[in-house]
Amino acid sequence: MKIFNYMETYDYEQLVFCQDEQSGLKAIIAIHDTTLGPALGGTRMWTYKTEEEAIEDALRLARGMTYKNAAAGLDLGGGKTVIIGDPKKDKNPEMFRAFGRYVQGLNGRYITAEDVGTTEEDMDLIYTETDYVTGTSGAKSSGNPSPVTAFGVYKGVKAAAKEAFGDDSLEGKTIAVQGVGNVAYNLCEHLHKEGAKLVVTDINKEAVQRAVEAFDAEAVDPDDIYDVDCDIYSPCALGAVINDDTIKRLKAKVIAGSANNQLQESRHGDILFEKGIVYAPDYVINSGGVINVADELHGYNQKRALNKVKTIYDTLLRVFEISKRDQIPSYIAADRMAEERIAAKKQSRSQFLLNEHHILSRR
Ligand SMILES: NC(=O)c1ccc[n+]([C@@H]2O[C@H](COP(=O)([O-])OP(=O)(O)OC[C@H]3O[C@@H](n4cnc5c(N)ncnc54)[C@H](O)[C@@H]3O)[C@@H](O)[C@H]2O)c1
Ligand SMILES: CC(C)C[C@H](N)C(=O)O
């Protein structure tokens, strides 16, 4: 991989390699764009097979956060960290403290949070070395983002239903939910309360059983979820689930779920558009978690955060409107919306540097 070429192609600002021999820390912080404000994005710990794979993941995820934060209307840029290692075996407290010192060294240009493989306890360790971390266990923290992400996804499912069926009621609608983990379990609760009929799957049998019992859901095998006769398909487990194989099988008129990077390739978003399937772009519908942690920067207020999460409904309606108006797939409409916000700001400022007037300087 030609790193500078890649960074130039997608206009990345900074890539930071962090190494600490004593704790075994090997981390990569990618900062994509700080035009709108400091880069906020989680820290992922994963068993990357090669260093190249880790660099690519950090870069791709950081860019994703630029779009997610911009589309959510946050004054934040995009960044992400990957730590190379097995979260079940390779963690130690010194590792996260060392990582915290690297974050502090960026002086507020990057703010971290939880992601796959990291926990609230890890954020607490990072917090011992830097203020530029959210999602700690402290009283001023916003706590576990999953229920809030689920609330945003629920609002997004309703917006997509309004677009597809002319009415946002989910009563009597059949919804196929793929994965019933932290986000989707909470999502199912909202959907069930509104009278939707749920069909669920997960590779974890206990998770399926829990959803079947709590929400009167029907269970199917993991691969059968794509063939379910349903109104709405809600992918809440993995990425790349919209691909050449599944697109032929899906019967839903709406695709709206929490998983990141749902389209295997962008051309799959084009096919959905051609088929008239309403697709809620992943980074718009799943932005509830980041909206919630971002509120901490202003002194966390749950009511304010949830009110902002509710706006995912209107943001998606705007995305669908642009898609129809310009005859472009919804994923392109969402990208345009995010890019326009950044471009407008770029006229007056580019990279973020902390100064004493910024809200972060009061942390
Ligand atoms: N947690 C958040 O706040 C948040 C925010 C934004 C996006 N997301 C995204 O939403 C998705 C779910 O996140 P989560 O926090 O609920 O994760 P989770 O790990 O709690 O849940 C994922 C579930 O998917 C199941 N699963 C894995 N492979 C599967 C397969 N092949 N078929 C069916 N089920 C499978 C897992 O067993 C697990 O129960 C992820 O893609 C995540 O990146 C989460
Ligand atoms: C900052 C985090 C809450 C981000 C979250 N992991 C996401 O993908 O949106």
From TrEMBL:
NAD(+) binds at G179, V180, G181, N182, V183, A184. This is Leucine dehydrogenase. Pathway: Amino-acid degradation; L-leucine degradation; 4-methyl-2-oxopentanoate from L-leucine (dehydrogenase route): step 1/1. GO terms for biological process: branched-chain amino acid catabolic process. The active site is at K80 (proton donor/acceptor). The lineage of its organism: Bacteria, Bacillati, Bacillota, Bacilli, Bacillales. It comes from the Bacteria. Residues 143-350 form the Glutamate/phenylalanine/leucine/valine/L-tryptophan dehydrogenase C-terminal domain. PROSITE patterns: GLFV_DEHYDROGENASE.
